[in-house]
Design brief:
Order of helices and strands: EEEHEEEEEEHEE
Strand order of the largest sheet: 5-6-7-8-9-10-11
Distance between the termini: 22 Å
Number of strands: 11
Helix content: under 10%
Low-confidence stretches: 203-227
Strand content: 35-45%
Structural class: mainly beta
Radius of gyration: 22 Å
Amino acid sequence: MGVYVDGVYLGRQVGQHWNLWNLERVEVLRGPQGTLYGRNSIGGAINLVTAPQGVDPGARASVRVGSRGRIDAHVHTDANLGDAFAATLAAGVNRRGGLGDFINRPDAGVEVGEMREVFGRLAVAWCPAPGFSLTVVADANDGDNGLNPYTTLIDEVPGGRVFAAGYRNADVSDDPYDSNTGQLDQTRVGNAARGCGGNRELVGRRAAGPQGDRQLPAFGVRGRAGR
């Protein structure tokens, strides 16, 4: 199953853990889709389509607060930059405190289930003529979160290495915060990614902005790296 944003392929799973605040629609296509989307879409394709640039000029912001110090702050702007250019910018911060300290690593510097995330996406469209449009997009996100509470099923996997080492379900702590995480690097869950891509479009010019109606296949590759 291939995942695409405006027709551009997301090559790594980590690239799918990010925010799209100006999402217009989600297209779910039954596979195989190799003719249009290539060999990575035998099982089908999910295409996330964002709102066109310059169609709805203005700015929007939202703030959500909740328990455990939760605060989600997002902003989105859309503007026409003259007759030929339009741009959208979306950015945000997500924060929420954890559920408690790791029993085996109280020095982790992060709590169990804590969330820290920042993201941004910039898209610029150029329409020099009524029949041509070029869109270039850059995005990035960075997440540094605490490992969520979990338990280990040992008896259910008798062929596993933990079972072979002599451990059983009875050895697992009843405390969800005691995940037997003695290694410091296992207390954090990172999600850092960045990429760029583009689309060329055959358009009919709109009064509201330079974007149009008919889209050709996207070009370029979105490169993303994570941890």
